[in-house]
Amino acid sequence: MIFSFRNSKKLVFLSLIGLVSILGYQNKLMAQNDTKTLLGAGSTFIYPLFSKMFSEYNQKTGIQVNYQSIGSGGGILQLTNKTVDFGATDGPMNEEQAKKIGVPALHIPIASGAVVITYNLPGVKAHLGLTPDIIAGIYLGKIKQWNDPQIVSINKGISIPAFPILVTHRSDGSGTTNIFTNYLSKVNPEWSSKVGSGGAVNWPAGLGGKGNEGVAGLVKQTPGAIGYVELIYALQNKMDYALVKNKKGKFILPSLTSVTAAGNISLPADAKIFLTDTEATDGYPICGFTWALIYKEQNYGGRTADRAATLLKLLWWNIHEGQLYTTPLNYAPLSKQALQVAEKVLKSATYNGKPILK
After folding, report:
1. Looking at residue 48, what is its pLDDT?
2. What pLDDT is recorded for position 33?
3. Are 93 and 141 in the same domain?
């Protein structure tokens, strides 16, 4: 997922400067075995939460965390290159990325967020309801009018204008697209076979916009447009968004509560799972985690045991006390199940083969 800032050019500039600072500053820190400063990079979606968490942690402990929001792919790359202590990503590492990193890496869930279906329908005040088949049909270019019988039949009592549907999507690779297309691949066999999932795909229909702001701009400017953005972005920009029918047959409004509920399921021991098409009765079906990524074995590149312990204590704080800062910033806190898995994953980290956290 990509967090949108008002001045996107400034974000790009600062991210590039930040990346340079990582590459130039890392060796110095590692050489000094500095245990008072940690380096991280990756997901832009999680950046506002990390900024608050790390500021509070610094006040409590004196530990400074230099985190650069350069995107999920960038975070994985910098961890692979051993230029940061931890990466952050909105999609679990794929087989190719895992192969490049070469050794076991741990995925620690930090928080979760939703991808919402937003639209521009003048005169429609209520939240529209959409089913998986309708969403897939629209993005496959098969459903072309808002007053299509499939849409009208499940939105009784709502007067839907006869606008043509303008499909919009991301033109850049993103975690938001990864979550959205993973969802479509799960709920629609045709989408799965023809388009598939990933951070960037060959879209069957529509216009592309760069970043959340690009998609939102297209939707806002065009009556009849539909797009997908993060819940945080939709709330901040007062955009209309739909209820989505989940696997249990319930139409769910995306909210912090329904996103947290999506994680109240049986999670794999490694925490590497998309929360899309959740089995949770009250869970919103298009959402996912943001993970912190670290090497399982922390004795590498001249790292000291103290530095490894400092990193693990930070991440432990993030999934416990740090969760207090999720809801005020419109992030969904970890569910009980997700917290339990996150604890076990962190406790599996070692230094010279011995557990770091007792």
Report:
1. 86
2. 60
3. no
